[in-house]
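Input sequence (467 aa), recorded before submission:
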Amino acid sequence: MKISFASAAKAPASALPAGRDLLGVGSFEKDKDLLKIADRVFLISLGKKDKFTLDVVRRAAAKFLSQGKSLECQTLRLDLDSLHSKFSLPQITQAAVEGLRLSDYRFDKYKSKPNPVSSMRSVELVSKDSKKSKDIERAIAEAEIISEGVIFTRNLANEPPNVMTPDHLARAAKEMAAKNNLTCKVLGKEEIKKLKMGGVLGVSQGSAEEPRFIILENRPRKAKFSKPIVLVGKGITFDTGGISIKPSTDMDKMKFDMCGAAAVIGAMKVIANLNLPIRVVGLAPTCENMPGGRAQRPGDIITCMNGKTVEVLNTDAEGRLILADALSYAKKYSPMVLLDIATLTGACAAAFGDIASGVMGTDPKLVNRVKEAGEVTGERVWELPLWDDYFDLIKATYADVQNISKKYAGTITAGLFLKEFADHTSSWAHLDVAGTAWNEAAPKPLSPIGATGVGVRLFVEIVKSYL
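Predicted structure, token format:
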């Protein structure tokens, strides 16, 4: 499906190119010419004016595409001017293209008889403001790059766990990096041992699959800052819970426990292709959490890369253990900003459902940036406190810290645990996407059942906010 811009400024509406089928408009505004540029007109509800956001535009574009498919249209036109309100035309354009692309996603590579592909050939975005044509075309190009990154991330996460092993994820990152002007280094088990990453080694020791540690970096010619932004993503390619084994119901969804790592890898792809002049490093510790004769036991004590010891009271609280090593490793970059993302706690999903992700951090300005980026992208977040009062809940009897709370506040105490390993920087934030990383029961306007790709657009918007 091709998405392009068509200016309606110098020609009457009836003179626009042929192949008309369906026109989508958000507000009609008594424009009779609209009736001349399509065989049919589809009116899209945008809701209340005071609640109009860019995500409303994304969802409206998704509805429009769905309607076009149901009518078996081959060409669609979306009237940008009728969506134009408090946002600029380029902003409206980018949101509309994201809505079209992300809602059109499907993952059916393993079906012997995939569903028929839509006959949709093209979508034209129409505006009478010819002065904005170059800006609109740039916005389309940027939205295409961002959408490609989200789709890449979804594809990684939707793969079955017998395919998406730690080694497979590392090879996919390397292949992507080679094609997108990124450097990629992958550390194997022996290198991980040399770095004394007790978290990664402990979690992976019950699996036949060896761990990997993925390092991605972009190559800006003239970086705006000397220090980089470091992104860290949890990459558990399958999580049984280990010895503290999960219930069998819905355990198949635990292939999505690497969505944080996938989001970092996808975001790095976008950042490279947008040529953003900011140094960014992506770190993705990846392994399986399996039971077995060599598996980590409840009661084990491990030493993480920064020398702190952890009493492992529950082997299903494994994500924070591999993130502990990755956050410690990030110290070598002296990061300007350190951000991590993880499907970390069921408590976060219980609190926010699949509507918002949790955010915690040591830098209020960074947390506010994350919140603002969430509003722009529609990947909304809500802040939880990191008060020291909660730390008593993870004080260990036999080690420096334990990996689960003694009783309550599971999401907050997980954040406090990670803080112990991000103490080398004053600007750190943690994103818990346990409830938003995949759609479980029903599809959403911008994504079907399965991985959502949450975090990619959010990270890109955060990096752009430093320009």
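Checked by second reader. Residues 133-158 form the longest helix (26 residues).
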